[in-house]
Structure formats: structure tokens, C-alpha cells
Batch of 2 targets.
Target 1
Amino acid sequence: MNILDAIHPLQSTSQFNLIFRISDFEMQDSSNFKIYSACCFTRMIDSQFDLVIVGGGIVGLATALQGIRKQPPARLAVLEKEAAVARHQSGHNSGVIHSGIYYKTGSLKAKNCVSGAARMVEFCREHSIPFEVCGKVVVATNEAERAGLGELMRRGTANGVPGLCMIGPEQLREMEPHCTGIAALHVPGTGITDYSRVALKYAELIQQSGGQVLINCEVRRIAKRAGEVVLETTRGAIKASRIINCAGLHSDRIMRLAGDESTLRIVPFRGEYYEIVPARRHLVRNLIYPVADPRFPFLGVHFTRRISGGIEAGPNAVLALKREGYRKTDFNVRDAIETAVFPGFWRMAVKYWRSGVGEYYRSLRKQAFTRALQKLVPEIQSSDLEPAGAGVRAQALDRSGRLLDDFVIVRSNEIIHVCNVPSPAATASLVIGEQIVEMLDA
Ligand SMILES: Cc1cc2nc3c(=O)[nH]c(=O)nc-3n(C[C@H](O)[C@H](O)[C@H](O)COP(=O)(O)OP(=O)(O)OC[C@H]3O[C@@H](n4cnc5c(N)ncnc54)[C@H](O)[C@@H]3O)c2cc1C
């Protein structure tokens, strides 16, 4: 069925308040969803909901889905400022279903990633979303990195990641014939998928269960009144009994709009990708990672096979001067000033300026980026790589200059703020959503 034919009015609470709902269609692809997004929700004034989720990324949508599954038929809405869901982090990532080897045992990341990955695979299978459990190798190229591999093996085992195996250079060559290293950790459970499609499916299921996904609906102000919260949006005022803030790169701002104190600031880190030209794709079979620097919550530039075909190299981690700045030249005065006046930024800069300069250098000099990749696959050349877009990570920083590694979710009366959900939050989205919904009743 054509999506446009499937649109029908759901309710009309006043002459000016027409809300539409999609039903009875099978989402074919994301372009269809854009048509639906652009034409569906034209007006939305003075609506009342039990639960409102701010942010239509994969975490907000997963939370809404788990919320509506737990308490049907809750009056629930997801508010998204863009013209479609998953336009930011959830639509600009590596598409890896992480297995859980990196995270400190006992952390929220460790707890959620292993079960989250299994749930993601199950979800993709159930809803015919393309995925593949292709495995990955983490490669040590010197003795110091070999020690790092041992730590990953120990953490992964403690976190319950199945099938981990240390391999030598020969076995590595059998798996990845163009990759060199003195040792590697094989992680057979790592997979790949397309998180935009996962997010679109979440949105479709929310709609089918009676919830609403309201696009072009930016939250501008928040007022707390007795027993309810009023959100002033670009679609008018929306009242809700409870709110969940899943605004990603803007989650700290939503927290401040709600009048809640935060000692954290979101600092945007752009991750830039290259793609290997088709004639050289044979250099990489699946996923090849370096041993990451444990001081940072980033994994280092690596090779990732995309579920849609092709091999990407990256992402790096460059401090961005605009929260949604996907190009190197993007700059936003407010974003840059907010970062610069935050004391934690300067404390971080003093500690890590050398790594930061290195990231900028690799960002501006393709040859330097290529050299980082050549540590893993020596045959790769600068001419094999074409620019392939970027994503911007919402990374929380505290006042002491610490980049927060773990997920951070806090409750302030009727509002839950999802303050820090970097990678592997796409992998773990269904489990994170479930936990947030449980927090509502705690
Ligand atoms: C380069 C990169 C690579 C990554 N690779 C992986 C990976 O391989 N595997 C993995 O598991 N994770 C990966 N991640 C992490 C993962 O993508 C994120 O953790 C996840 O997408 C976060 O989802 P989210 O819903 O919190 O944020 P987002 O997707 O950013 O969604 C937040 C939404 O809130 C909306 N919003 C903001 N302000 C407002 C407002 N005022 N009113 C209304 N709406 C608002 C935004 O428009 C946005 O759509 C990667 C991230 C990046 C950037």
C-alpha cells in the first residue's frame, strides 16, 4: 500500500488541531518515511499526553516503544525537531552491533551491551531488517598493544561476551589476508546493521500501538506546573504528566530548560569517515579495529563493512565547533561559546591537547589519516579512500574535565534526563529503553 493512501485522520480535538496517524502499511524504505514525515503532521496545538519523549533518535524511539508496550494504551508522543526521525547520531554512525568487550565490568555499558546486542539481532531478524553477525578482529601491532588486548579479553570475558579468542598473526591472515599484527582478539559475536532502518521500524511500531511521532516539533521552553509539565514547541503547547529527555546533542540544554541543575556539558566530537574505492574493497573482509587508547571513550580509526555494501574507514574524533556540524567548516557561535566557557573544557584541553591536535592533523591531512589505517592494513593507500560523510557524537564532559565513559540517566521528579548515551547506545537501545521506562515507576 502506498503510504500517502494510508494516511487517515486519527483525531481532531479542535478545529485547528488535526493529528494524523499512519496505519496498515508496510514501510518499504526510508524515502517512503520521509514522504510520510513531510506530509503527516501539519498542526498540533494544545495536546495532552501521559508521557512525552523529547528526541526522535534511536534511544528516544526505543524508550517510547518500550513505554507503550508496558502500558498500552498510554497517550504517548515522541517530539522530534527535524523533518524525520534519526537525522543525527542515530542516522550517522558505523552501524556496528557491538559485543561488549570495551566496557568496565559492572558499568551500565557493560550490562546493557551484551544483552542489548542479542536483542538487536533478534529485533532485526523479527522485522526483516538486514543484519549480519560477521565478527571482528582487534589487532595489536606492538607489545604495549598486546597488553591492551589482554585487558580487552579479560573485560569481555567478565562481561559475558561469548566466543572470544586470542589469535596469532597466521590466524589473523586467514581471517583478514591483508591485515598485519603481532596478535589479535577475535570477537565472533560482533555484527552490522542499519540503525536508521531500526529507528524507522521503532517509529512505525509506536504508531501502530497508538503512540504518536511528531516531527518538525522542536521543544523551545519547558514549564513545570502542579502535576504536569508544559512544553512550548514549534507546533504549539503540549502538556504531559511525565517527560523523558532523549535529545542527544541537546540533552543538556533540555535539562536546563526544565530548570534542572546539571554539572555536565555536551561536547560534540565529529567522527569523519572515508570509504574504500570499489576496486580495493578486497583489502578488508569484515571489521578491523586497533587497540583503543583506554583514556578516551573512542575506539580509534578502524575498518567497518557496511550492511548496505562497501567498506568505511574511520571515524576519527575531532572536537566540533557546532553541535550538529557535519562539515569541517561548520561553526556555531552559541555552541562554540558554550563549550569554551565551560570550565571542564579547559581542564580537558590541558590534559589531552596533544591527542586533540593529532586528531585535527589527521582530519586535515588525508595522508596522516591513511598512515593510521596502514598500521592495520599496510597496503591501503591515500588514493584508495574517498570522503564518506561524518557523524557527531554527543559526549558528556564534567566540570573536572573528565569525558564521561558510562551511560548517565538521571531522574528529577516527573522528568528523566538521558544525559550521556554514546556508543554502544544504538546496539543497546532496546534494553536502555526498558530501563528508562522502569525508572518512571521507581
Ligand atoms: C560517528 C558515530 C559512530 C557511532 N557508531 C556506533 C556503532 O557502530 N554502534 C553503536 O551502537 N553506536 C554507535 N554510535 C552511537 C549511537 O549512534 C548513539 O549512541 C545513538 O544514536 C544515540 O541515540 P540518541 O537517540 O540518544 O541520539 P540522537 O540520534 O542524536 O537523537 C536525538 C534527537 O533529539 C532531537 N532533538 C534535539 N533537541 C530537540 C528539541 N529541542 N526538540 C525536539 N527534538 C530535539 C534531535 O533532532 C535528534 O533527532 C555512534 C555514534 C557516532 C556519532
Target 2
Amino acid sequence: MKIALDRLAAPHTTYTFGPGCQVACAGFEIAGGVSATLEVHLAEHGVVVVNGTMLATVVQQCDRCLGEFDITVNESFTYHYHLGCAQEPERVGDDSGENGATAYEIDELAEPILDVDDILREQIYLCIPHKLICGEGCRGLCAGCGANLNNEKCSCSSKRIESVFGVLQNIKGT
Ligand SMILES: [Zn+2]
Ligand SMILES: [Zn+2]
């Protein structure tokens, strides 16, 4: 999905995508696609302001039990761009001065094209936690037999006790 910034119907245009838009996101499976709304505002001096919201359900695998679970990405975001072909945006004051620092980052656009997929992908990546656990109480997999301890009770621990008793009995017997 792309927006041609030189062909906006108005300097202030709202775009709606989805629900069910496909966004390729390496390493992530998105269940049911993405829905998003982007408000594109062409400001002065080639500055483009994009305000948006998005909603997606990302299917993830739990690091502990390897079970699948969903993460809901429900984000609002703002991006600032500058069209490379336009003149430099006017900076208020001196950049190095205390009051001159820009409060936001401006990405330079070489072409007047806004890649919506890129924005949505970035939002998804920002939302996915580093450590993926399906729930606080996830009991993980049994180190002995690999059973998912959230769903079943394996017999490893009881076997271990039996074998300890067995060893004791053998010692007694000799
Ligand atoms: Zn888990
Ligand atoms: Zn087990």
C-alpha cells in the first residue's frame, strides 16, 4: 500500500485501509490482516505530517511452552517527513541552540511516495515484546518429556520419585 503524495485530493486527506489488509511482516503471522487509518497532511516547505491508528492481531509463539498466542497491536502514531524535492523546511531558531532542537524526527523522502506498509510494519515491530511469554503463569515444557505443562500433567516427576525409592530399596536389599 502506497500513497502518492503529489496526487493528494486535498492537503489534508484521510486514508482508510482494511480491515483485512495484507502487510508482509518477516517473522510474524498476522491473523486476519491489518486495518489502519492514516491522516496525511501536507504542511508548508515540503513537510508531510502523518497521523494514524492501526489494529492488527499478531500470532506469536511462546518462548516457554512453544504454544501460539495472539498479541493485539492497537497503536496511534505520528510521522514527519520531508519531501527531498522541496526546499528545506524552515527551522525555528538555531539547531544547536536550546530552543532550536526539533521535537520530532523528520525522515527525508526521496520520492513523493509514502509507503504505508513500512509504517505499519514498524509499528508492529515496536509492539512485539522481546520476551514472548503467552501468560504470566505459563508453566512451559517439561524438561524430561517435552509435554506442555499448561495442557497436561506429565508423569516425569512421579517417575523420578519412584526411581529414587527404587534405588533406596536396592541399597537396602544388598
Ligand atoms: Zn507459554
Ligand atoms: Zn515430563
